[in-house]
Amino acid sequence: MLMRTDPFRELDKLTQQLTGGSTPGTWSRPNPMPMDAYRSGDEYVVVFDLPGVAPDAIDLDVERNVLTVKAERRPVAVSDGVEMQVAERPLGVFSRQLFLGDTLDAERIEAAYHNGVLTVKIPVAAQAKPRKITINDTASEQKQLNA
């Protein structure tokens, strides 16, 4: 099972509840690293939108069943004499942490990055997969022993 946490999202929800929505002069900032997660067969797939992030600016780490995704969106280089008119795209380092359940195989995680989308595949651990259990017929075993 895949578990996620975003402590700031919970804080944002609490703040909105206490203030009755957004306060004048503020706006709800979108998550700079939105994700989707789903199960496909024997693996979980987590997809992160990271437009404008260079592949070398993405870092994935797993420590004690916690998958950490860090990405840095760097400012676009502007030449001398150019004055920025609007700067709404969030810049800087962003991170998300996913807590991986014991049923996932953190040793075999795979990741790919294409067209601003990071896809992480986390296989279900072999011991967590359903398996058939054979039932022994003790009556026939007793007959074979007595014969």
TrEMBL record:
Residues 26-138 form the SHSP domain. InterPro entries: A-crystallin/Hsp20_dom, HSP20-like_chaperone, Small_HSP. Pfam families: HSP20. CDD domains: ACD_sHsps-like. PROSITE patterns: SHSP. It comes from the Bacteria. Belongs to the small heat shock protein (HSP20) family. This is Hsp20/alpha crystallin family protein.
